[in-house]
């Protein structure tokens, strides 16, 4: 099997390593089948799409909607690298699944309106599939409404016409979309379990996702409902595109 690639941007080792482990577990891949590239540590290597089965993108600290002058040199480099990669990915309709930061990267490539109108606090929310989502082969194993972990400062407020809306939540109208047949992005985290999001809550305390006195409230919020269905998306993605 040709490998998949995980493009990651987390600078903190513990959540970065745990993110990779979660993708491995829920996608059903071994380490030689999922190559991790930590983009915060160095430039994106040249990716020969003919030698890959597909691309995953994990979450991260970057906000596409931040003013250019507020973006670090690393963020500007990563955004430029994603712009070049997505030009080829979208043109070839190459298998791609971006989780959370995937919405920012693919959305920016499409010229979507990305702002803080529909941000969501770290929590569990109900995500509901649209009619197109219920018909999409990547989501065939998913219930019509399922619980998912979220936590994001920005979101897409207007989805461009080339994209197909697949899922929404009560406070965030664009939770998942597709471009072409094989390029997907989710605002929720299909890779996360309760232990994983707990790690991130502690790792990113003080990063503006919640108030300095809201740690206990945030930890309680991710216990609101059991979350199990979203990880099926990773497994289905691998089963559909492994070659």
General form: globular
Rounded to the nearest angstrom, the distance between the terminal CA atoms is: 5 Å
Structural category is: alpha/beta
Task: Describe the main β-sheet briefly.
Answer: 9 strands, mixed
Topology:
Blueprint: E1 4-8, H1 13-27, E2 34-38, E3 54-57, H2 73-92, E4 96-99, H3 101-110, E5 113-115, E6 120-129, H4 131-135, E7 145-152, E8 155-158, E9 163-169, E10 172-179, E11 183-186, H5 194-203, H6 215-221, H7 232-241
Parallel strand pairs: 1-2, 1-3, 3-4, 4-11
Antiparallel strand pairs: 5-8, 6-7, 6-9, 9-10, 10-11
Q: What tags apply to this protein structure?
A:
243 residues; Rossmann fold; 32% helix; single chain; 11 strands; 9-stranded mixed beta sheet
Give a written overview of the molecule.
Strand 3, helix 2 and strand 4 form a beta-alpha-beta unit. The protein has a single domain, classed as Rossmann fold, CATH 3.40.50.880. The chain has 243 residues and is of the alpha/beta class. A 9-stranded mixed β-sheet has the order 2-1-3-4-11-10-9-6-7, with helices on both faces. Strands 5-8 form a two-stranded antiparallel sheet. The protein contains 7 helices and 11 strands. Helix 1 runs antiparallel to helix 5 and helix 2 crosses helix 3.
